[in-house]
Amino acid sequence: MAQQQIDAHTEVAGHGGGEGGHASFPPFDPNTFGSQLLWLAITFGLLYYIMSKVALPRIANILEVRRDRIASDLGEAERLKRETDEAIASYEESLAEARQKAHGIANTARDEAKSHIEAEFAKVEADVASQISEADKKIAAVKDAAMGEVDAIATSTTSAILEQILGSSVAEKEVSKAVSTAKAN
Predict the structure, then answer these.
(1) TM spans, by residue (predicted)?
(2) SS3 label, residue 128
């Protein structure tokens, strides 16, 4: 009875799967293992040949080109970095020279301004000294004139005082002589 069930089951599976009446899945059928292994070896060999002769050399070529491009780009970047460093050094040198030149110009301008101010100061000082000298001369002249009149004023004042005190006029020669004597002492 068990054998009938297995045969029935095989028939049902065989009829449900198609017209061939095979009872198992074809890749797992032991009758076709040899041909499957042969076609697997042929396909693998052909795929290996195509990959080694066509695809892998192309990939290797692409990798070589990329490696060369990267090396070239790195070399270019290094060259540009050197140029940039040189430009920065040149800029800093020019900046230092400009600062030094500006400092020199400022010192020159300061020295010129100082000498100009000193020259103007000397000129003004000379003008002031000249004006003071002339003022001293005028003062001396006025003083001399005033001193010359002092004798006359002293004489006339003394005459007026004596006339008031004595009630009579005194001779002008005597009053002048008395003023000169008083002035000398």
Answers:
(1) 33-51
(2) helix
> What residue has token string 């050094």?
89
pTM value is 0.39
Tell me, what DSSP letter sits at residue 32? G
Q: Alpha-carbon torsion 20, 23, 24, 30, what sign? A: negative
Please enumerate in sequence order all residues whose Cβ is within 8 A of that of 36, keeping only pairs 6 or more positions apart, or say none: 27
Token pair in block for residue 155: 């004489």
Taking only the tens place, the pLDDT of each residue in 9-29 is: 454 444 444 455 556 787 788
Which residue, among 14, 34, 36, has the nearest Cα to 25 in the 3D structure? 14
What span, in angstroms and rounded, lies between the C-alpha atoms of 39 and 36? 5
- Measured CA to CA, the distance from residue 180 to residue 176 in angstroms comes to 6
Residue 21: phi, psi to the nearest 5? 75, 15
